[in-house]
Design brief:
alpha/beta, D-Maltodextrin-Binding Protein, domain 2, six-stranded mixed β-sheet, five-stranded mixed β-sheet, 31% helix, binds 1-O-pyrophosphono-5-O-phosphono-alpha-D-ribofuranose
Amino acid sequence: MQPITLALAKGRPAKSTIELLEKTGEHFIDLHEDSRKLVFYNKDKSIKVIFVKALDVPTYVEKGAADIGIVGKDNIMESQADVYELLDLKIGKCKFSVAGKPDHPIKNNQKLTIATKYPNVAKKHFLKKGQPIETVKLNGSVELAPIIGLSDYIVDIVETGSTLKENGLVVLEDIEKISTRLIVNKASFATKAAEVQQFINQLKLAME
Ligand code: PRP
């Protein structure tokens, strides 16, 4: 068997992903969500785990620096990476929504300003509707934008809805359901078919 490299996303769903990995029976020494270390191995070194920024996971997988990635659908959509998405791990469940002020329904046929951490997702969504938009790329605290007049609306992740609520905003449109997915490099899917399939089967069993 050839060794495989698995890219894991740092951040919110890291803890649940690591718990699921441990349930496969593979133990990765020192691997925990707050670790500053970036490379980990299982006991027989058949699996190398690299710990990277969530939005970079699809890039590592697309370029073949990792054979497999475990990352949120939000980052897969935003990266537009050319990879196979093979398994829904059903953790980190949330959704992409358009949100704004409650008294400010979405106006059609008027150029809208959308603040977001996910400009590609926003552009694709509004393009489908034939709605012209301009995006303002932010890196966090996106909910502030419509409040202070930086944008008309936001496109963001909604999990519990409490960030929107606490800032007086509401969901105006849902875009897509999000959860953690397993993605595979297209070449690895052919050249390491047995290893990739074995890892997926282990994960599926751990999910039961
Ligand atoms: C995310 C997202 C929302 C919030 C949604 O932000 O961008 O702001 O979580 O979660 P909720 O519906 O449960 O309130 P994150 O916590 O990653 O922080 P950020 O503002 O720094 O991006």
